[in-house]
Amino acid sequence: MKWTNSFIPTLKEDPAEAESLSHKLMIRAGLIRKLSAGTYNYLPLGTRVLNKVINIVREEMDGSGSLEVLLPALHPPEPWEQTGRLKDFGDIIFKIKDRSGKLNLLGPTHEEIITLLVSNEISSYRQLPVILYQIQTKFRDEIRPRFGVIRSKEFIMMDAYSFDIDEEGLEKSYRKMYKAYCRIFDRCGLSYHIIEADPGLMGGKGSHEFTCPSPAGEDLFIKCGNCNYSANPNFAPINEFGDKSSETPNSSLKPLKDILTPDKSSIEAVSKFLNVQPTEMVKTMVCRTPTGQIAVLLRGDHELNFAKLARLVSAPVVELSDEKTIEKVTGGAMGFSGPVGLSARGGPTGNIKIIADYSVLEMKNFVTGANKKDMHFLNVNINRDFKIDRSADVRIITEQDPCPSCGKRMLKIMTGIELGHIFKLGTKYSEALNACFLDEKGKRLPMIMGCYGIGVNRIIASAIENSYDENGIIWTNSIAPYQVIIISINPADKRIREVSEKLYQDLRANSIEVLWDDRDTSPGVKFKDADLLGIPLIVTVGKGLKDKVGGKVDIKYRSSGKKESIGVDKVLEHISSRVQGV
């Protein structure tokens, strides 16, 4: 493609609205343009990169034996109501009404739709296993779209679904997808971690995330510097404490005492006011579950892990209770909640179960709220002053905790971009939507399902976050918009134009993707744009043609910055031999 025939609107400065590095470079390099919050136009260069990523995904999915389908983006609400996810997803689902007033949904994902399709078409074990996938646009009404295409309201996903007759079959399908994902991300040139993860609203018994380390990422993950264990903090177990006895010798217990703490409702404020450490305090968090309110006790410096808590109480989601509910349950103002008098055994404030994190069990003479405005208790102790109903690991792991795998205290919390997520769904959807088959004995059983998703747009952003310098993007050859860019220093010069034209045509004839910068503009602008675009090989046709021995062109390797001069008669051969490895 000749630059003068293309549409590549590059920018010299970072756009004001762009937050992440990849967002800035995608706009500056003319890959995308914003239409509205969370929606983007893909320009010619961006579309080329997008199509290359899609082709890699499609090739690897086809190679794994998966079969491509295309499902509607417009969904009826009934299947979502049958699985309960219409309520679980809440306002993140776009809802629209057609001219007859019927409600429709813009699909944020397709578990319900694919399960309905399979339930109507597959009835025998002889038709299983099967893995179906699609590459489709999804829609989610994100409260705060961020970082360009990393978190947007409209995005492209590859989502695959496996259907098997038993758990053994699911494990085979899961491993097949696991390996296909590795090949996809390797071919795209990405650095990534595979981490154990929480299934969340998807449900199921197990899942893994494929995460690209990046400061622009909104997902946290932990990594052990000793054994390379990686996990989502919502999933990582904390093995330091365990379910120990909360019995404490009476001789070491100090008398319970209340103390005035005016307008001090946060851990930080109370800690400073009373001159105690957060590790000497216990915070009481009142949470709402589908079956009622619960109180969760955490050490003052720890954070509640809502995913762990939801799994513990077998709830799809757990949230903090609102201020009015907290006041009703505890009898006091929000920020002053405490466990004393808060019991499932008929305390004065009503029937509420108390769950203590394991770390609280080893504490004694700690500070808590007193369930009265501007009041706290000193020297609170389990069993003497209140009872707990259950203890469990319900907090987020920290860098100070031992590794769940090797036990070494070498954890590091990192941020990353979630590239893909695979789930062992089990029978959650097949049972709800009656996707069953007849086994060898004629018994009707629910299909065992797996679900596998890849954020196609995020691969592009992650590739940029992985590979760039102060001058712009550095693409790998596999997903670069072009493999080679030819810069004609002065297109008006007959010799320069003739050599550029011949090289351009020869490269195209050899199926090498080439962009020819034939603009009538300064060399400086062309060099800056070439670096910004990140095309792997930059070929400059200019003063080297004056070389006495046949003339030369200059080649720059974008990734390393290495430069060399090659004779005009050897340049095609030279580029052809290197284009696959740049």
Global Rg:
30 Å
Distance between the termini: 20 Å
CATH class category name of the largest domain: Alpha Beta
Query: Which oligomeric form is depicted?
Result: single chain
Q: Which topology of the largest domain does CATH recognise?
A: BirA Bifunctional Protein, domain 2
Structural class, by secondary structure, is alpha+beta
Give me the CATH architecture of the largest domain, please. 2-Layer Sandwich
Please tally the β strands and state the result: 31
In percent, how much strand structure appears in the residues? 25-35%
Could you list the spans in which at least 5 consecutive residues all have pLDDT below 50?
Answer: 242-246, 344-349
Mean pLDDT: 91
Shape: globular
CATH superfamily heading of the largest domain: Bira Bifunctional Protein, Domain 2
**Count of discrete domains:** 3
Q: Report on the biggest sheet.
A: 9 strands, mixed
Give the helix proportion (percent range). Answer: 25-40%
Q: What count of helical segments does DSSP give?
A: 15
